[in-house]
Amino acid sequence: MRRVLNDPPRPRRWPRRTAVTLAVLLVAVAGLYLRNSSTIAGQEDGQRPFLLAHRGIAQTFDLAGVTADTCTARIIHPPQVPYLENTLPSLRAAFDAGADQAEIDVQLTRDGRLAVFHDATLDCRTDGTGTVGEHTLEELRRLDVGYGYTADGGATFPLRGKGVGLLPTVPEVFAALPGRSLKLDLKRDQQADGEALAAFLATLPPDRLATVTVSGGDAAVAAVARRLPQVRTSSRAVIKDCLLDYAALGWTGHVPDSCRHRELPLPARYGRWLWGWPNLFVARMRTVDTRVILVRGEGDWSAGFDTPADVAELPDGWAGGIWTNRTDVVAPLLIPG
User: What region holds the GP-PDE domain (predicted)?
Assistant: First the structure.
Protein backbone atom coordinates (compact mmCIF):
# COMPACT_ATOMS: atom_id res chain seq x y z
CA MET A 1 0.00 0.00 0.00
CA ARG A 2 1.43 3.40 -0.90
CA ARG A 3 1.61 6.17 1.70
CA VAL A 4 -0.34 9.26 0.70
CA LEU A 5 1.42 12.62 0.78
CA ASN A 6 -0.26 13.90 3.92
CA ASP A 7 0.58 10.85 6.05
CA PRO A 8 2.89 11.72 9.02
CA PRO A 9 6.54 10.67 8.49
CA ARG A 10 7.55 7.42 10.11
CA PRO A 11 10.18 7.70 12.90
CA ARG A 12 13.67 6.73 11.78
CA ARG A 13 14.97 3.61 13.45
CA TRP A 14 18.60 2.60 13.83
CA PRO A 15 19.36 -0.88 12.58
CA ARG A 16 19.64 -3.18 15.59
CA ARG A 17 23.32 -3.96 14.94
CA THR A 18 24.20 -0.24 14.70
CA ALA A 19 22.39 0.54 17.96
CA VAL A 20 24.24 -2.22 19.80
CA THR A 21 27.57 -1.03 18.40
CA LEU A 22 26.90 2.55 19.52
CA ALA A 23 25.89 1.38 22.99
CA VAL A 24 29.08 -0.66 23.34
CA LEU A 25 31.19 2.30 22.20
CA LEU A 26 29.48 4.64 24.68
CA VAL A 27 30.08 2.19 27.52
CA ALA A 28 33.72 1.79 26.47
CA VAL A 29 34.28 5.55 26.29
CA ALA A 30 32.62 6.05 29.66
CA GLY A 31 34.75 3.29 31.16
CA LEU A 32 37.91 4.76 29.66
CA TYR A 33 37.04 8.18 31.07
CA LEU A 34 36.26 6.87 34.52
CA ARG A 35 39.40 4.73 34.61
CA ASN A 36 41.51 7.79 33.82
CA SER A 37 39.59 10.48 35.66
CA SER A 38 41.68 12.38 38.18
CA THR A 39 38.61 12.79 40.37
CA ILE A 40 39.20 9.28 41.74
CA ALA A 41 42.63 10.26 43.07
CA GLY A 42 42.82 13.33 45.27
CA GLN A 43 45.27 14.79 47.72
CA GLU A 44 45.69 12.70 50.84
CA ASP A 45 44.60 14.27 54.10
CA GLY A 46 47.39 16.29 55.69
CA GLN A 47 49.62 16.08 52.63
CA ARG A 48 51.08 19.08 50.85
CA PRO A 49 53.03 19.15 47.59
CA PHE A 50 56.64 17.98 47.64
CA LEU A 51 58.86 21.09 47.54
CA LEU A 52 61.96 21.04 45.34
CA ALA A 53 64.12 24.07 46.16
CA HIS A 54 65.83 25.09 42.94
CA ARG A 55 69.43 25.99 43.89
CA GLY A 56 68.26 26.62 47.47
CA ILE A 57 66.57 29.97 48.05
CA ALA A 58 67.69 32.03 45.09
CA GLN A 59 67.33 35.48 43.61
CA THR A 60 64.49 35.60 41.07
CA PHE A 61 64.12 37.33 37.71
CA ASP A 62 61.61 37.83 34.92
CA LEU A 63 61.82 35.20 32.17
CA ALA A 64 60.46 37.53 29.48
CA GLY A 65 63.05 37.90 26.75
CA VAL A 66 65.52 35.49 28.34
CA THR A 67 67.69 33.54 25.88
CA ALA A 68 70.52 31.04 26.25
CA ASP A 69 72.99 33.95 26.27
CA THR A 70 71.20 36.08 28.87
CA CYS A 71 73.13 36.81 32.05
CA THR A 72 70.27 36.40 34.51
CA ALA A 73 72.31 37.85 37.38
CA ARG A 74 72.02 41.19 35.55
CA ILE A 75 68.20 41.15 35.53
CA ILE A 76 67.24 40.05 39.04
CA HIS A 77 64.32 41.50 40.91
CA PRO A 78 65.29 43.79 43.81
CA PRO A 79 66.67 41.32 46.40
CA GLN A 80 64.23 40.22 49.09
CA VAL A 81 66.62 37.68 50.62
CA PRO A 82 70.41 37.79 51.13
CA TYR A 83 71.09 34.37 49.66
CA LEU A 84 73.17 33.35 46.65
CA GLU A 85 72.13 30.25 44.73
CA ASN A 86 74.08 27.01 45.07
CA THR A 87 75.70 28.04 48.36
CA LEU A 88 75.40 26.38 51.76
CA PRO A 89 73.58 29.33 53.40
CA SER A 90 71.03 29.26 50.58
CA LEU A 91 70.51 25.51 50.85
CA ARG A 92 70.21 25.55 54.64
CA ALA A 93 67.67 28.36 54.44
CA ALA A 94 65.58 26.38 51.94
CA PHE A 95 65.44 23.32 54.18
CA ASP A 96 64.73 25.44 57.25
CA ALA A 97 61.80 26.96 55.35
CA GLY A 98 60.31 23.56 54.55
CA ALA A 99 61.98 22.20 51.40
CA ASP A 100 61.80 18.44 50.91
CA GLN A 101 64.69 18.39 48.44
CA ALA A 102 67.21 20.90 47.09
CA GLU A 103 68.68 20.96 43.61
CA ILE A 104 72.33 21.87 43.10
CA ASP A 105 74.29 22.26 39.86
CA VAL A 106 77.46 20.22 39.37
CA GLN A 107 80.53 20.73 37.17
CA LEU A 108 84.03 19.27 37.14
CA THR A 109 86.94 21.60 37.86
CA ARG A 110 90.32 21.43 36.11
CA ASP A 111 91.67 19.36 38.99
CA GLY A 112 88.73 16.93 38.90
CA ARG A 113 86.69 18.28 41.81
CA LEU A 114 82.89 18.34 41.81
CA ALA A 115 82.13 22.06 42.08
CA VAL A 116 78.62 23.41 42.70
CA PHE A 117 77.97 26.18 40.16
CA HIS A 118 75.36 26.74 37.48
CA ASP A 119 76.64 28.77 34.54
CA ALA A 120 78.77 27.55 31.65
CA THR A 121 81.09 30.53 32.25
CA LEU A 122 82.14 32.52 35.30
CA ASP A 123 81.77 35.98 33.75
CA CYS A 124 78.11 36.57 34.56
CA ARG A 125 77.88 35.96 38.31
CA THR A 126 81.47 36.22 39.48
CA ASP A 127 84.57 38.38 39.13
CA GLY A 128 86.27 35.57 37.22
CA THR A 129 86.44 34.64 33.54
CA GLY A 130 86.40 31.44 31.55
CA THR A 131 84.71 28.19 32.54
CA VAL A 132 84.65 26.16 35.73
CA GLY A 133 86.58 23.42 33.94
CA GLU A 134 89.45 25.80 33.19
CA HIS A 135 90.08 26.51 36.89
CA THR A 136 91.17 24.57 39.93
CA LEU A 137 88.97 24.47 43.00
CA GLU A 138 91.45 26.70 44.85
CA GLU A 139 91.13 29.34 42.12
CA LEU A 140 87.35 29.16 42.19
CA ARG A 141 87.30 29.59 45.97
CA ARG A 142 88.83 33.04 45.59
CA LEU A 143 85.98 34.29 43.40
CA ASP A 144 83.01 36.34 44.56
CA VAL A 145 79.93 34.42 43.40
CA GLY A 146 77.74 37.44 44.19
CA TYR A 147 79.78 39.90 42.15
CA GLY A 148 77.56 40.29 39.08
CA TYR A 149 74.06 40.59 40.54
CA THR A 150 72.18 43.81 39.82
CA ALA A 151 68.52 44.80 39.77
CA ASP A 152 68.94 48.26 38.27
CA GLY A 153 70.96 47.74 35.11
CA GLY A 154 74.33 47.95 36.83
CA ALA A 155 73.80 51.12 38.88
CA THR A 156 74.25 49.09 42.07
CA PHE A 157 75.43 45.56 42.90
CA PRO A 158 73.77 44.70 46.23
CA LEU A 159 75.32 41.25 46.62
CA ARG A 160 78.86 42.15 45.56
CA GLY A 161 81.47 41.18 48.12
CA LYS A 162 79.11 38.76 49.88
CA GLY A 163 79.99 35.64 47.94
CA VAL A 164 83.75 35.32 48.33
CA GLY A 165 84.70 31.73 49.12
CA LEU A 166 81.12 30.47 49.08
CA LEU A 167 81.43 28.11 46.10
CA PRO A 168 81.11 24.60 47.61
CA THR A 169 81.86 21.10 46.38
CA VAL A 170 79.38 18.23 46.21
CA PRO A 171 81.02 16.32 49.11
CA GLU A 172 80.88 19.48 51.23
CA VAL A 173 77.17 19.89 50.54
CA PHE A 174 76.45 16.30 51.56
CA ALA A 175 78.54 16.66 54.72
CA ALA A 176 76.87 19.96 55.68
CA LEU A 177 73.32 18.65 55.09
CA PRO A 178 73.19 15.17 56.63
CA GLY A 179 69.97 13.32 55.99
CA ARG A 180 68.71 15.84 53.45
CA SER A 181 67.45 14.87 50.01
CA LEU A 182 69.47 16.36 47.14
CA LYS A 183 69.04 16.55 43.39
CA LEU A 184 72.30 16.86 41.47
CA ASP A 185 72.03 18.49 38.06
CA LEU A 186 75.02 17.76 35.82
CA LYS A 187 75.52 20.95 33.81
CA ARG A 188 77.90 19.49 31.22
CA ASP A 189 76.65 16.55 29.19
CA GLN A 190 79.94 14.71 29.44
CA GLN A 191 80.39 11.06 30.35
CA ALA A 192 83.41 12.01 32.48
CA ASP A 193 81.25 14.27 34.65
CA GLY A 194 78.72 11.50 35.20
CA GLU A 195 81.43 9.00 36.05
CA ALA A 196 83.06 11.37 38.53
CA LEU A 197 79.74 12.01 40.26
CA ALA A 198 78.92 8.30 40.31
CA ALA A 199 82.30 7.59 41.93
CA PHE A 200 81.46 9.95 44.78
CA LEU A 201 77.88 8.73 45.17
CA ALA A 202 79.12 5.15 45.39
CA THR A 203 80.80 6.06 48.69
CA LEU A 204 77.47 6.97 50.32
CA PRO A 205 75.57 4.50 52.51
CA PRO A 206 72.48 2.97 50.87
CA ASP A 207 70.00 4.96 52.96
CA ARG A 208 71.58 8.27 51.89
CA LEU A 209 71.88 7.17 48.27
CA ALA A 210 68.15 6.47 48.29
CA THR A 211 67.49 10.20 48.80
CA VAL A 212 69.51 11.26 45.74
CA THR A 213 68.24 12.26 42.29
CA VAL A 214 70.58 12.88 39.34
CA SER A 215 69.54 14.93 36.31
CA GLY A 216 71.24 16.51 33.31
CA GLY A 217 72.23 15.61 29.77
CA ASP A 218 71.63 12.13 28.41
CA ALA A 219 75.28 11.00 28.29
CA ALA A 220 76.16 12.30 31.76
CA VAL A 221 73.07 10.82 33.42
CA ALA A 222 73.48 7.50 31.61
CA ALA A 223 77.01 7.21 33.05
CA VAL A 224 75.58 7.51 36.56
CA ALA A 225 72.75 5.06 35.85
CA ARG A 226 75.14 2.41 34.52
CA ARG A 227 77.13 2.37 37.73
CA LEU A 228 74.29 3.12 40.16
CA PRO A 229 70.98 1.90 38.71
CA GLN A 230 69.36 2.35 42.12
CA VAL A 231 69.65 6.16 41.86
CA ARG A 232 66.58 8.08 40.68
CA THR A 233 67.38 9.82 37.38
CA SER A 234 66.00 12.46 35.03
CA SER A 235 67.17 13.50 31.56
CA ARG A 236 65.61 14.39 28.24
CA ALA A 237 65.85 10.77 27.07
CA VAL A 238 64.49 9.41 30.35
CA ILE A 239 61.49 11.74 30.28
CA LYS A 240 60.78 11.17 26.59
CA ASP A 241 60.90 7.37 26.86
CA CYS A 242 58.60 7.36 29.88
CA LEU A 243 56.00 9.72 28.46
CA LEU A 244 55.84 8.08 25.03
CA ASP A 245 55.39 4.65 26.57
CA TYR A 246 52.80 5.96 29.00
CA ALA A 247 50.89 7.68 26.19
CA ALA A 248 50.55 4.29 24.52
CA LEU A 249 49.72 2.23 27.62
CA GLY A 250 48.53 4.60 30.32
CA TRP A 251 44.88 4.40 29.31
CA THR A 252 44.88 0.86 30.75
CA GLY A 253 46.22 2.06 34.10
CA HIS A 254 49.54 0.30 33.48
CA VAL A 255 52.74 2.25 34.15
CA PRO A 256 55.58 1.10 31.84
CA ASP A 257 58.98 0.08 33.19
CA SER A 258 60.58 3.08 31.45
CA CYS A 259 58.81 5.26 34.05
CA ARG A 260 60.11 3.34 37.06
CA HIS A 261 62.23 5.19 39.67
CA ARG A 262 62.43 8.48 37.77
CA GLU A 263 61.83 12.15 38.32
CA LEU A 264 59.59 13.89 35.80
CA PRO A 265 59.68 17.72 35.71
CA LEU A 266 56.65 18.74 33.68
CA PRO A 267 54.99 22.02 32.68
CA ALA A 268 51.22 21.90 33.12
CA ARG A 269 50.76 22.40 29.37
CA TYR A 270 52.30 18.95 28.75
CA GLY A 271 50.58 17.28 31.65
CA ARG A 272 47.07 17.94 30.42
CA TRP A 273 47.63 15.43 27.60
CA LEU A 274 48.57 12.59 29.97
CA TRP A 275 46.18 9.84 31.03
CA GLY A 276 44.82 10.63 34.49
CA TRP A 277 46.24 14.14 34.72
CA PRO A 278 46.77 15.60 37.21
CA ASN A 279 46.44 13.59 40.41
CA LEU A 280 45.68 10.12 39.11
CA PHE A 281 48.81 10.42 36.95
CA VAL A 282 50.81 11.44 40.03
CA ALA A 283 49.37 8.54 42.03
CA ARG A 284 50.22 6.04 39.29
CA MET A 285 53.79 7.31 39.06
CA ARG A 286 54.13 7.07 42.82
CA THR A 287 53.40 3.33 42.62
CA VAL A 288 56.65 2.90 40.63
CA ASP A 289 58.64 5.27 42.88
CA THR A 290 58.62 8.11 40.37
CA ARG A 291 58.28 11.73 41.44
CA VAL A 292 56.35 14.25 39.33
CA ILE A 293 57.54 17.86 39.66
CA LEU A 294 55.40 20.67 38.24
CA VAL A 295 57.26 23.65 36.78
CA ARG A 296 55.89 26.96 35.53
CA GLY A 297 56.50 28.48 32.14
CA GLU A 298 55.02 28.34 28.67
CA GLY A 299 58.17 29.11 26.67
CA ASP A 300 61.58 27.48 26.33
CA TRP A 301 62.55 28.11 29.96
CA SER A 302 61.16 26.71 33.18
CA ALA A 303 60.07 28.99 35.99
CA GLY A 304 59.45 28.37 39.65
CA PHE A 305 56.33 28.69 41.76
CA ASP A 306 57.68 31.64 43.71
CA THR A 307 54.73 33.91 44.61
CA PRO A 308 51.19 33.56 45.98
CA ALA A 309 49.89 34.21 42.45
CA ASP A 310 52.02 31.33 41.15
CA VAL A 311 50.67 28.98 43.81
CA ALA A 312 47.13 29.90 42.77
CA GLU A 313 47.92 28.38 39.33
CA LEU A 314 48.41 24.88 40.78
CA PRO A 315 45.84 22.25 39.77
CA ASP A 316 43.19 21.68 42.43
CA GLY A 317 44.47 19.36 45.13
CA TRP A 318 47.84 19.00 43.43
CA ALA A 319 49.50 15.91 44.97
CA GLY A 320 52.86 15.99 43.19
CA GLY A 321 55.92 18.18 43.62
CA ILE A 322 56.57 21.79 42.69
CA TRP A 323 59.75 23.56 41.61
CA THR A 324 60.48 26.77 43.50
CA ASN A 325 63.18 29.36 44.07
CA ARG A 326 61.41 30.74 47.13
CA THR A 327 60.57 27.98 49.57
CA ASP A 328 60.26 30.63 52.27
CA VAL A 329 57.32 32.22 50.42
CA VAL A 330 55.64 29.10 49.07
CA ALA A 331 55.81 26.61 51.97
CA PRO A 332 53.54 28.58 54.32
CA LEU A 333 50.91 28.82 51.58
CA LEU A 334 50.78 25.04 51.17
CA ILE A 335 50.36 23.96 54.78
CA PRO A 336 47.11 21.95 54.86
CA GLY A 337 44.33 23.77 56.64
Answer: 69-334
